[in-house]
## 1
Amino acid sequence: MGKLNVKEAVQSLELQAFMRSLLEDLRTLDEMIKSGAIESDITRIGAEQELCMIDEFWRPAPVIESVLPRIRDPHFTTELAKFNLEFNLDPMEFNGDCLSKLETEIHAALAKACKAVRMMRGDVILCGILPTIRNMDLELDNMTPMPRYKALFNSLRRMRGGPFEYHILGKDELIFKQDYPSFEFCNTSFQIHYQVSPAQFIDTYNFSKLITAPVLAVATNSPLLSWKTAVARNPHRAVPASHRYAKYVASFAQGRSLGCPFPISGCAIPFWKFFRMMYRDSVCCCGCRGKILGYLQKWRNTGTYGIAYF
């Protein structure tokens, strides 16, 4: 993720210098693509796994500063919260038994993490949002003390222009206000990295957005946030955009029939509306849009519901 030698830009001249450097990077990337400097004859896959560290009572254990020196592996790194840990897998060619190799690497890395955290009388757990997180765990004292995270939070706060307010209307109601977006401490995920050629990028990017909804619907397993059940009370009532929280929380109306361990029925908007939003944000004007519109019409006609986002 870089050298991490971050210096926060707060003065106008520093911000201007940053913007000039960013634009120069984009121009360089554009030249690399036009000149064929980016490899296009190979496809690779990689991944990163984020996890929570817990104590003997299954509460968040803010021990990252003690755990990383025990692991001594450059594949492991910090995340926003002291009770989060991340490891990155080596990229490999996407062919043959690459997925089996990926699984083997994940188990090996998890074993390393477990061993180190258990030396601190804790353990690791893989879940989207740890159900035992309390409001006191979201204080800034639990932010990993690295300049990049402080700079990120300060930038978001300046852009926001005020406190971060959350109102999630589910079976329970959660109303919360923070000076900093430390609710992001809650989020952990498994992320796949997929390398394609520049010529394939636009279609692949648009397709990945198209399938975001059903993938989240069968994979999301975090019904609780701050001891509240964050599932929409009325399956036919859309949650206002101002009430969105951090990431999409997706569920099918009959989650159990699709292999979801929770029969979550809290749906907010139809699939076809969600996909139309994805379609509007797509980056190309090629023929694939016609196919996408066909799928949208099909989902609209069948009335399939599936996305709740806050």
## 2
Amino acid sequence: MTTNKGFTMIELIIAIVLLGIFASLGTGAMMSLFSKGFTFNIDRENLNSGAILIYNNMSRDMRNIRDPDSITIASGNRLAFYDIDNNLLTYFLSGNTLEKKIGVVDYPLDEHCQTLNFRYYSDTENLLASPRVGAVVSTDIRVIDFTAGLVFNYEHITINIRVRPNNVEE
């Protein structure tokens, strides 16, 4: 009596078909994971680009405040001042859009800004609850802290800027 060693043709075909089915199921899952990873990277890149734009604009503008008399509004969610080119600049949140106003024209900086907060400090680094501002009053602001929270598709970035304006020292 001889014993057959090996697989029959039907067993091989069934094994190949099963491998094909498992491979096709795994490919769909892998494509879904790659798609989610790609979307995550795009969302993160959009937030990073917005954060860099905000950081560059605001830190440059706040360093170029014209003089101690040029800050007109300094509240927790709005900052307005004249820069060294004599432009009136205002930063504020309108809905979820961080706006930069130059004169009377609004320029959106980022449309994913959920929070905006300004804090002002004296030359001794004391927090100023009510800073002096206005055209006839020299400001007591020496340092400006700015915090903004950006959110896009469940991705979060917080921007913190601490600026010492060049021209407000007395």
## 3
Amino acid sequence: MESPRPSRCRQGGGFLPHSQQADQRGFLPSARVRRFLVEHVGLREQDVAVIPNGVDTRRFAPTQRAHTTNELLVGTVGSLTPVKNQALLIRACARVIQQGLALRLDIVGEGRERPALEGLVRSLGMTGRVRLLGHIDDIPAFLNGLDLFVLPSDSEAHPNALSEAMACGLACIASRVGGVAEIADQRPRRAAVRAWRRKCADWNQSPIWSPIQKDGGRSAGQQLK
């Protein structure tokens, strides 16, 4: 008799087994989420395997970036929901702009938080600096047009958006939640700081960047930390 195929149900950012059926196995995309469910929910280790989300590196790959502006282009991709916390990123960008840096933020995604985010953008005087782009078809092209990708989420399992941005060769900053550390390890902050400093060096003829040229980008690095 043919053995039953694994049954999976989507829950909490991953796949959990139907616990009533002992001969079935569940799958999760993150070892950290698996550990949490084993330690705090009571799942058996042998009932849950980890299969990380993959990235199609034929689609998500670095391309030549052609800049026509002196602005630092920052972007993020995700549904406009409270857990994705794009509001945090908008506020952070507002603070950076107040310190004299030329920056533009593009947010891809749609959801119920759009009205609140639009109101936040207006209240911070960021209407000309932040664009809520909604759904777009060509995510690889969007990512390859950025200088910096940020994932400000309050919770994640194994975020595809971060993996895809890294596959495109972007410097990335992400909240240390869920399986983010499994994707980025301990290196993304240092990589982002180095990328920021390189960008400052590339644009060292622009007066916009004068506040950070004098110390070789170290003040920018402190912002990223």
## 4
Amino acid sequence: MSQFDNSLSDLSNCIFKLKRDLIRKTRTIDKISFINNHVLRTPVTSIQGLLYLLETLNHKEEVWQLIGLLRKQVEDLDKVTRKINQSTSLEDY
């Protein structure tokens, strides 16, 4: 084999490994995106809906304070899940 053939073979092996790594990373991003969109987002949106219903009822001041604290936490979690969605979007690549 010539030096050219060896270089070509080395290059081909390198491309194969890079392609394999890219496929693995893409699958990982897909899994993270699925978990975020379905496993995390579902409880977040459910809590948001329940908070909306709770807010329509009459409560003592202490309950309103707890609702406010809960709303703040769910809004923070909502921001995190949306940020994960943006980070794992393949449209950005």
